[in-house]
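Kindly draft a polypeptide, keeping tokens residue-aligned:

***
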Amino acid sequence: MIRLTAAAILLACASPVLAETHTVAPGEGAQERLQEALILAQPGDEIVLEAGRYALTDGLSLDVDNVTVRGAGMDGTVLDFTGQQGAGEGFLITSDNVTVRDFALENPKGDGIKSKGADNIVYHRIRVTWTRGPHESNGAYGIYPVESAGVLIDGVKVTGASDAGIYVGQSNGITVRNSIAEANVAGIEIENSRNALVEHNIATRNTGGILVFDLPDLPVMGGGNVIVANNLVVANDTPNFAPAGNIVAGVRRGTGIMVMANDNVLVENNILSGNPTAPVMVIAYTQPFEDERYDPLPRQVVIGENLYDGGGYDPQLDGAEMLLAAFGGELPPVLWDGLGSLAAVEGTAGWSLNLTEAGKGLGAAQPGPLAVPEPAAEFDRSGIGAPAALDARLAG
């Protein structure tokens, strides 16, 4: 019995004893040395990237669970993909319980960091930048977790993405916070995902600041249970530079927060300033579709108290001159197309297109003041956000 107990203790201690730190420095052969460390890592290991600029010619990949990749800060350790030969991701992660933190990626040919099917992933103090500024040939996404359960994005910064700077798709249990999305087409996008909390972020100089979407024909359907709260959404006035045919190519310059075809969404305690088309927009999906699982209407969307300052003064909408004249030179801050269900706290200033059918376009609009009920009950916040256990990885 004593021997069995001793063996059990040794086995229990094996993982931390065997965990290793792999240190990689910039310089000649950095591509091969870094990828080798990612391949040879074992669960529990940490890969430390020393300060400096890493000139990389190909994408990186990680497929080992429970690994941390740590740099010397988002301005201290820079993975430079300017010379990348392929068009794929800068860094692809396909394993669970991974933490990436404290480094930057510049000019990847495709997405910045993409994680697919990677549960309980943490992105902390990561910067992704396309240094030439907004351009349709930039990569689509900066931070790009998809098909995951448990996503924590904290303290990241993305600039120049031709689709979405910070994107979470087809996932569940999500927190995006304390981050900056600047000069992207969409600053932050939550798509076909459930139980997402988007809070304490800055979305500025994007075409659209924060988007909550649901789209048809994707493997995971039925997004909802989303809270967008306590964000600064300011001066989202960059002309749309998405490639033609991209779904976000239709986002109007000057959109602050947009909810489209999603269910049970709360927008509250945000500061919205200088978004010239609409500080808040709630709309149905307008394109034809055949997916019988899909509901194109926004449902149970709640607009709480927000601070609105200077929006709706240069709307990128058909008939803008007549609309501005009708509303005294500036459109009310909340725009609803009239489809689905919307509630708003007392005193919310808004207007409605009063559409009666999705996909009819602005030509069928009959604009008028917003007339919606107040919220019937407190918003149910239970289960929304990333698992609390992920916070422990932010220490240090």
